[in-house]
Design goal:
The structure is a homodimer.
Chain A: H1 10-24, H2 31-38, H3 42-48, H4 52-77, H5 81-91, H6 97-102, H7 105-113, H8 118-145, H9 154-174, H10 178-189
Chain A binds a DNA duplex (30 and 30 nucleotides) through helix 3.
Chain lengths: ~190, ~190
DNA sequence: CTATTTTTGTACCAATCATTACAAAACACA
DNA sequence: TGTGTTTTGTAATGATTGGTACAAAAATAG
């Protein structure tokens, strides 16, 4: 390869940028902050991400879609995927206080973007919908296996998990408290039985 | 009174500003937009609200605290306050699509403000906590009256309602759909019985 | 060593941001 | 009608925004 070597790796920058977007949201995060956090100057930022700030944010969201795929394969391998999902929800409880305040970047984006940027908002919505779909198929399959006795439709139960996720996303900022969060999550996970 | 008469009434301006903040959040709402929406120039805005944009936002939040007080007196007068609370949650279902996209200004603010402005974030958190307190006393009183059989502590049930509220606040943007929202809210209100 | 190619850092761009300064406007009182 | 007082609309404030231009830097290829 010819030319000056690339020192700023695409994926590293996305992760650094994601951190910042996750904390402050899209609008409140400035390019100078992104530049400072990633260590890359404006030149490198725009050379790597042709679409500028918005493209960088898109990539940050997409990163979560990749994480979802990882979770999907994990569920498929498991012989008790429902317990895995419940464990995932409960794992939130023991996270750091800062993680509580950051919440979920997808849920945050849905709230922030509605009247700001429809495309970015829909990107986030799509990811949550895909997560819901994963829950639905998992629950449906476990209902057929008889591991879930509840006759409530799998779609409704899955959507309940999404609602819980979004609820906890805000509650953990009000109460970044292990016991309270555990109490609430366990109460609502009882519906999946 | 001496001097040029005040044409822009304090409360009217707060309500107009609240609309805009509600839609776009604090950061993304500019003073020029606020000026356009309220009809008042920058001069009047800063003359009426000495603290500028932030003060105007505070007043917008405080407006919801007033609404909460109204609901409180309504509950105190009712002989079936639990049904009133449940009806309140279900009333969300029939709201306009735009209302769904706007969500709850308090919950929105909690999500937006965490790493942006601690004071404004705490203002919003306080209002939700006060709402929770109202739910707690209501549920506790109805438990004593025997109208609620559940032995789950009133504090936990009240907090469940707050979690539900925050969850629906995001879900309604993903699914601004009457049937889906009704389904989810009813499912979760079953816990209060 | 030279030419070519790509990335990088910096200086710069116009636009917008929240806020302030201030003069004209609109009233009360005399 | 004139004086004092307050509000209003507008023009300017400096700071910051997202984005661009471009030359220096750093590599390869010949």
């Amino acid at each position: 390869m010819k030319g000056r070597p690339t020192v700023f790796k695409n994926e590293e920058m996305v992760l650094k940028a994601q951190e910042l977007f996750w904390e402050k949201g899209y609008t409140a995060t400035s390019l100078s902050e992104l530049s400072a956090r990633t260590g890359a100057g404006a030149g490198s930022l725009y050379n790597t991400f042709k679409g500028g700030k918005k493209e960088l944010f898109k990539k940050s969201l997409y990163q979560r879609k990749v994480d979802l795929e990882d979770f999907k394969t994990l569920l498929e391998k498991s012989d008790n995927p429902i317990e895995l999902i419940k464990a995932f929800f409960l794992s939130v409880v023991t996270e750091s206080k800062k993680s509580h305040f950051k919440g979920c970047i997808i849920a945050n984006t849905i709230v922030e973007m509605t009247f700001i940027d429809e495309e970015l908002g829909n990107n986030a919505i799509d990811i949550l919908k895909e997560t819901e779909k994963l829950y639905t198929t998992t629950i449906l399959s476990e209902q057929k296996r008889g591991y879930i006795k509840s006759q409530i439709p799998a779609t409704v139960l899955a959507r309940h998990l999404i609602t819980l996720w979004c609820g906890i996303n805000t509650l953990r900022r009000i109460y970044p408290d292990k016991d309270i969060l555990k109490q609430q999550i366990e109460l609502q996970l009882q519906i999946i039985k």
